[in-house]
Structures are given as C-alpha cells and as structure tokens.
C-alpha cells in the first residue's frame, strides 16, 4: 500500500550572514489519508520550513516527495500544490469581499476548465473532488471566477463559518473570522494534504475549537492534515511529531488500522514525547487510501 | 525652416542662465535646503552634455553617413541602459540585458513607424530626424523603465506573504506576480499619460516649443508634437511591458518558489 505522502531525505539549509545554517537534514515522514498529525517543537526549529518544503514552496529545501507513489517531478509545481496545500499562519484575504477572497483559488489557471490537475491519477477522491468543483461552478463551467454566492454560503455554514457575511470587506473581519475564512478557502479546493501552519495561534479558545472541528470534519472525509500547534493537545490528532535540533521525533498513537505504514518518522528514536490521545476522535472506517472520500461532502450536510 | 526669424543665443546668454542657477543655489544654501550642491553640479553637467550633444549631432548631420548615425544611436542606447540601472533601486543584478532589449525593440519600432512610415525623410537615415527622435523616446522609456523596475521589485517584496499564499493555492508565477506587474506598469506610465493629456493646455511641449522658436509653422509643429507624444506613450508602455515579461520570473526559482535575490 502506498502512503498518501511520503517524504524522504528532506534537507533545509538557510543562507545566513556567516555561510549557511542547516535547519534540518535527512528527515523522513509519511502521512496517510484521513489522519491529523500535530507538528510541534521549539520555535525556530524549522516547523514552517518543513511544511513549506512539503508543499514545494521552500526554495532552501530539497528532498524526495511522492504523492500516492507518484514522484513530485511528475507534477507541475502548481498541480502538486493543489494536492499538498500549505496554509500560512497569517490569513491573507485579497479582494473587496469575503466571497471574492474565497473565489481566488478558482480564478487560477490550474483549476480552469474543470481539470484539477492530477493528470489521470483517478481515484474516488478525485472523482468526488471534480463533482465538488463542478457543483461549485454551477451551470456554466467557465464561471470559475463567478461562483454562486449561495453555494459559498452553504459551504461556510457547513464549515462552521455561518456567522461570516460574504459581502463584508475582508479587513473588517476579526482575527478568528479571517483565520476561518482562509481555512475555508483552502478546504474548498479539496487538497489531499493540508499543511496548516499555526492556524489557531492568536485565536481565543472558542475560535481555536471551531478551527479544530473544521479540520476534524475534513479529515473524516479523507483529507490528511499536518498541523503546527503551540496549544495543548485538543484530541483531534492521531499522533504528534516533534521537530527539534534538526531531528524529527515521532509519536505513533495507538492506531486501529494500517499501523505499519503509519510509522511516524524514520528517525523515531524512542523519545516519544507529547503523546496525544487520537483514538477516540480519529474517524473510524477511513481507509488509508482515502477511498471513502467524497461520501460525505459538506454541502450535503448543509 | 520657412519664413520665421531665428534668434541665436550667445555665450553671455549661457552665462546669464548659469547665474540664475547659481542664485537659486545660493538661496538654497541660505535656507539650508541641502540641494544647492546637487543643483549646481547637475546644471554644469547638463550644460556640458547638451553642448557636446549639439556639437556631435551637428557633426553627424554634416557627415551624412548612416554608419555614424548608427554608432551615435548605439552610444545613446548604452547610456540609456546605464542610467536606467543607476536610477532603479532595489533591483537584482543582471538587468542590463533585459533593459537593453526593451530599449532596442521600442527604438526600432519608433524609427520604423514614426521616421520611415509617417515622416519619410530623405535620406532615410536623416540624422536631423532620427537622432532627436531616438533621444526623445529614450528619455521617456528610461524613466519609465527605472520607475517600473523599482516599483515591481518593491511591490513583490511588500506582497511576499500574499505571493506565498497564492503560490500555495496553485497560482502560477505569472498569476502571483500579476498585481505587482500591473501596479508598476501604471506607475511607470503615469508621467507619460499626464503629459499627453496636459500638452497644449498648460504646457507647450519641448519639441513644439523648439520648432516654434526656430521659426517653424506652429501648426506643423503641433502635428509633429502629437505624432511624437502618441508614439512615445504607446512605446513607453510597450517597453515597460517587455521589461516586466523579461524580469518577473527573477522573483521565483525554477520550481516556481518565491525568492528574491
């Protein structure tokens, strides 16, 4: 069985005033569909750099990445990033209204013409995703940039953002609302792996709980999530990875299925700190290949 | 030049003009504006450069040799590139090639369209027409390119979080850079469109003024001026667009990652 994302020999070397500084070297990790992985570690240890490296956004990083066994070189950078999507800590919303901000991903060429850029990597998840996109696009499949407001509203409702009006200017939103809109914008593009960089930092407990609930729901539909967090464990994740001193320490929470492939990191060295209790909240019945995806889409619950 | 009288300027005229600058510099010293030295230095440079250019153009016109005209234009292009690069702030290295290409393309278009299609001088390389045309075009493109390049890289740095966000959502480098390209094109073209709209009302543009002072027919001068202004605005936008197409990828790696050197 191939893992959703497999990363090997990850290096990150930052240029600095006195030559180069190695942030991490030769890291490996694997992620399966439907699991939520927490990534912790001291600040400056390279957690964000690790996430941007996985999304191929980090110019200082290198490594071998495969998605469902297909090497990153088989994708264009844009195709890869629609599947492995980095969500920055700071919510940046463009355009005059919340609706415009949310439509941004669908105005991009990589999503034009109903193609989701996976070049024939057909599986249930892709099919669901395509239907999902065509639903969003309504009658005219060329209206990627004119998504139906009602559809977006239903989505936001389903994602727990029903309190956010679509015609509001994004800069009027509170920090918690902006964070949830940015999260919704990314989730609506249906990535296979969401790389969430401290999305709940700076939010109050209420908003942080809402963000966690949204991610749990997405994971239940087959999306994998890696979260950088500084908050105490909220029970949403199935395991925790700790990045410190350039090394990745894994903590494999007891898992019901596919545990051999759920091995955290190649460098798991027994220092299993920061355990989280994943089992009670981990969605049962999610097959690691994500084949259950698409059976419960948010709009059907709205 | 038909009919009109021509009034030349003698050495005393130059001295008087220079005295005005000296007086302005003195006032600036008195008021501690801190621009007196620059003002004087620039005025001296301008006097020398303009006189030199006048002598050189005079020589080239009398020599009536297409190769000499080409040589002069090449020198002007080189100076144009150097001035653009020295004026553009915060721009990565290796911009000389793209700037030269943008200037050469627009200059060739200017000469083809304006000189050979609209004015049709004899001989076709008439230095009296070609050299001033090139000079006017270069003057405008050089400032537009310098402003455009400065603004583009400044904007890409300001927008770094937004660019990263867009790339993360699957944007191409072009899509991520586009807002910065648009804003730099607008800014680079602002002086050109402003001069186009205000010409004839507030200002009599330099070329038309010169023709009138030299005794030419004012209506002829107006037509000339319009052709030049129109061509320059169009070609300035073209030069700016070319430079943006050539350099926007400098903000990204070959894996479409955001990185400004």
Automatic annotation (TrEMBL), chain A:
Residues 246-302 are annotated as: Disordered. Residues 5-270 form the ABC transporter domain. Its EC number is 3.6.3.17. GO terms for cellular component: plasma membrane. Keywords: ATP-binding, Hydrolase, Nucleotide-binding. It is an enzyme of class 3 (hydrolase). This is ABC transporter.
From TrEMBL, chain B:
InterPro entries: UPF0014_fam (IPR005226). This is ABC transporter ATP-binding protein. PANTHER family: PROTEIN ALUMINUM SENSITIVE 3, UPF0014 INNER MEMBRANE PROTEIN YBBM-RELATED. It is found in: Membrane. Signal peptide: none annotated. Belongs to the UPF0014 family. The lineage of its organism: Bacteria, Bacillati, Actinomycetota, Actinomycetes, Bifidobacteriales. The chain crosses the membrane at residues 6-27, 39-61, 67-85, 97-118, 130-150, 187-214, 226-248. It comes from Bifidobacterium pullorum subsp. gallinarum. Keywords: ATP-binding, Membrane, Nucleotide-binding, Transmembrane, Transmembrane helix. The keyword Membrane applies.
């Amino acid at each position: 069985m191939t893992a959703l994302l497999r990363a090997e020999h990850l290096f990150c070397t930052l240029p600095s005033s006195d030559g180069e500084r190695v942030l991490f070297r030769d890291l490996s990790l694997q992620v399966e569909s439907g699991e939520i992985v927490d990534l912790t570690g001291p600040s400056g240890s390279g957690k964000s750099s690790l996430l941007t490296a996985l999304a191929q956004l980090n110019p200082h990083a290198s490594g071998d990445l495969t998605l469902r066994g297909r090497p990153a070189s088989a994708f264009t950078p844009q195709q890869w990033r629609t599947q492995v999507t980095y969500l920055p800590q700071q919510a940046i919303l463009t355009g005059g209204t919340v609706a415009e901000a949310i439509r941004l991903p669908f105005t991009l060429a990589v999503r034009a013409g109903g193609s989701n850029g996976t070049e024939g990597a057909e599986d249930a998840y892709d099919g669901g995703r395509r239907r999902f996109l065509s639903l969003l696009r309504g009658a005219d499949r060329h209206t990627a940039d004119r998504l139906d407001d009602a559809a977006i509203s239903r989505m936001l409702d389903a994602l727990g953002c029903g309190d956010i009006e679509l015609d509001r200017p994004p800069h009027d939103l509170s920090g918690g609302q902006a964070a949830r809109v940015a999260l919704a914008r990314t989730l609506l593009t249906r990535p296979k792996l969401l790389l969430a960089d401290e999305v709940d930092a700076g939010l109050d407990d209420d908003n942080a709980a809402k963000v966690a609930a949204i991610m749990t729901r997405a994971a239940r539909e087959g999306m994998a999530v890696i979260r950088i967090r500084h908050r105490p464990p909220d029970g949403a994740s199935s395991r925790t990875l700790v990045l410190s001193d350039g090394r990745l320490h894994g903590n494999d929470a007891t898992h019901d299925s596919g545990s051999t492939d759920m091995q955290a990191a190649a460098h798991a060295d027994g220092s299993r700190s920061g355990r989280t209790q994943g089992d009670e909240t981990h969605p049962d019945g999610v097959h690691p290949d994500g084949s259950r995806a698409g059976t419960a889409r948010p709009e059907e619950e709205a | 030049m038909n009919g009109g009288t021509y009034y030349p300027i003698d050495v005393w005229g130059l001295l008087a003009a220079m005295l005005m600058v000296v007086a302005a510099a003195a006032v600036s010293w008195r008021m501690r504006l801190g621009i007196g030295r620059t003002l004087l230095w620039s005025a001296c440079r301008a006097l020398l450069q303009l006189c030199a250019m006048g002598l050189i153009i005079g020589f080239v016109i009398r020599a009536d040799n297409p190769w000499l005209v080409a040589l002069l234009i090449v020198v002007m292009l080189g100076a144009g590139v150097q001035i653009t690069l020295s004026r553009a702030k915060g721009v990565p290295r290796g911009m000389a090639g793209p700037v030269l290409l943008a200037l050469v393309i627009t200059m060739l278009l200017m000469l083809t369209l304006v000189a050979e299609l609209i004015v049709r001088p004899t001989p076709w390389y008439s230095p009296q027409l070609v050299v001033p045309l090139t000079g006017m075009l270069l003057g405008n493109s050089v400032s537009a390119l310098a402003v455009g390049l400065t603004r583009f890289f400044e904007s890409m740095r300001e927008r770094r979080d937004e660019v990263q966000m867009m790339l993360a959502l699957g944007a191409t480098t072009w899509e991520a850079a586009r807002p910065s390209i648009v804003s730099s094109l607008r800014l680079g073209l602002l002086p050109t469109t402003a001069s186009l709209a205000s010409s004839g009302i507030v200002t009599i543009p330099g070329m038309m003024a010169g023709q009138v002072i030299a005794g030419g027919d004012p209506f002829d001068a107006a037509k000339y001026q319009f052709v030049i202004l129109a061509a320059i605005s169009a070609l300035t936008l073209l030069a700016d667009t070319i430079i943006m197409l050539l350099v926007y990828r400098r903000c990204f790696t070959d894996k479409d990652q955001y990185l400004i050197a």
